[in-house]
Design goal:
Elements: H1 2-31, H2 42-94, H3 103-124, E1 127-128, E2 131-132, E3 144-147, E4 150-153, E5 160-165, E6 168-173, H4 176-180, H5 188-201, H6 204-257, H7 261-286, H8 290-294
Antiparallel strand pairs: 1-2, 3-4, 5-6
Helix pairs in contact: 1-7, 2-3, 2-6, 3-5, 5-6
């Protein structure tokens, strides 16, 4: 009977092995994963963890790039409008110079300039998701406000930057004073107020000096928009690279972690066959009698 015992013992071992292989194959087929716990493949699990960490970093950069792109688009629109409004302001002033201009025409031009000033104020006070764009680091307040009758910059000179990739940083918040005033003795809003008074009174000398100041403000806004546009292009290029890099990294992760479904199903079928064969072998041993071993 020792032979029967050995056959039974070996058969039960084969059943357990086949059962474990069948369960593993079924689990892979059901989850689509080759590595479900580190012990399944310690080296592969460690490599997959590194790839997942890289995916997390890429996702963070993509989110930062998307947010920066939207913020720069808002700033770009505001600067473009400032450039347009200053062009309109210069044209308006030029149209009413000279002593032959009627008071009603001057009054109409002054009203136009007041509207332009208000539009430029709105542009300088542009916010994105509740955060002021042209206040430097003081994002919780508008860039310019009329304080005791004086247009006053309420921000600071800090530039806020964001990392959109490991080696790429872009500016997402700007020093509005460098655009509105620069090295001039007064900001563009005060200049527009002075131009309204000059147009109303017909002061050609003041209109000439004011036009020069508006042209300098135009240049500052135009240059700022050009720098911003370069960052927008850089972000667009970075976003393309991040997408390509993410696809590559996720491909490596998939090869490490994910099951090959065709192979998993084949192993499941083979494991099922082995399991049934082991069960059949043990069943045959159980049917043997003493006479079978005496023959």
């Amino acid at each position: 009977m020792g032979i029967a015992f050995n056959l039974m013992r070996d058969g039960l071992g084969a059943i357990n092995t086949a059962s474990a292989q069948l369960q593993q194959a079924q689990l892979e087929a059901a989850t689509g994963k080759r590595i479900l716990k580190p012990s399944d493949d310690p080296a592969g699990a460690q490599q997959a963890l590194a790839e997942r960490a890289e995916l997390g970093a890429i996702d963070a950069y993509q989110h930062s790039a998307d947010s920066a792109s939207a913020r720069l688009a808002a700033a770009d629109s505001a600067l473009g409008d400032i450039v347009d409004k200053l062009t309109q302001a210069v044209s308006t002033v030029m149209s009413v110079r000279g002593s032959s201009v009627q008071p009603a025409v001057r009054a109409s031009a002054a009203t136009t300039l007041a509207g332009i000033r208000d539009a430029v104020v709105a542009d300088l006070n542009t916010s994105f998701q509740g955060s002021s764009v042209f206040s430097g680091g003081k994002v919780d307040q508008p860039a310019y406000a009329l304080v005791a009758g004086v247009w006053t910059y309420q921000g600071d000179t800090n530039l806020v930057q964001a990392d959109v990739d490991r080696l790429r940083t872009v500016t997402i918040n700007f020093n509005g004073q460098s655009i509105a005033q620069g090295s001039d003795p007064e900001n563009v809003l005060t200049t527009l107020d002075n131009m309204i008074a000059a147009v109303t009174s017909g002061d050609d000398a003041a209109m000439t000096s004011g036009t020069d100041a508006l042209n300098r403000a135009f240049d500052r806004a135009n240059q700022a928009q050009g720098r911003l546009g370069a960052d927008e292009s850089a972000i667009a290029d970075t976003q393309i690279r991040l997408v390509a890099r993410r696809t590559s990294v996720d491909g490596r992760r998939s090869k490490l972690e994910d099951a090959n479904m065709a192979e998993a199903l084949t192993r499941m079928s083979q494991a099922d066959t082995a399991y049934r064969a082991a069960l059949g072998a043990v069943g045959s041993v159980e049917k043997l009698s003493l006479l079978d071993y005496l023959r």
